[in-house]
Amino acid sequence: MSTPSSNHVDEPAYRTIDKFNAALCRWVSIGTLIMVLLTFLIVVLRYGFQMGWIALQESVMYLHALVFMVGIAHTLRAEGHVRVDVLYRKMSARSQAWVNLVGTLVFLVPVCITVAVISFPYVAESWKLLESSQEAGGLPLVFLLKSLIPLFAGLTLLQGLSDIARYAHQLKGGAR
């Protein structure tokens, strides 16, 4: 008799983080579609009807920030970032795992922690003021926009920890 969780016994824990970031990425892709449609609307309104709204333009900027800041963690997992791999691509899978492990520990984790620590007072002050746009007719949500900075750091750090577990699992002889 199998239990409901027995299907996932062999699945490494880091896959949960991967699935979470993949789900976020699917939601963010909807934001990309909305951003394109809003940009189209802005262009039609401006050049077809000589109308424009600052809030509509700022909403595209907010969505753009959301797409990149939240999507970065999934891009990291999908190995979609630019990499100069003149030597890397010729390495064995084990050597690549070592390079990725060391790179993540030495570069990614400290940068994410630094961004989170440094951005926290900046974002907290914005929340304290409920900071809004300086433009007349702009969105009163600058504090939410700035919140994407520590969110980006946290999601990327979480994905980095997942990657560290994956690389360690690979080095122990496990499958990717």
Search tags:
72% helix, mainly alpha
What does this structure look like?
- This protein has one domain.
- 72% of the residues lie in helices and 0% in strands.
- It has four helices and no strands.
- The longest helix has 37 residues, at 93-129.
- Residues 1-9 have low confidence and may be disordered.
Low confidence ranges? 1-9
Question: How many individual helices?
Answer: 4
Question: H/E element string?
Answer: HHHH
Taken as a percent bin, the fraction of beta residues is under 5%
Largest β-sheet summary: none
The total domain count is: 1
Which value, in Å, is the CA radius of gyration?
21 Å
* Ends distance: 29 Å
**Amount of helix:** over 70%
Oligomer: single chain
Structural class: mainly alpha
Shape: elongated
Number of strands: 0
**Average pLDDT metric:** 87
Q: Summed up, what is this model?
A:
The protein is an all-alpha fold and 176 residues long.
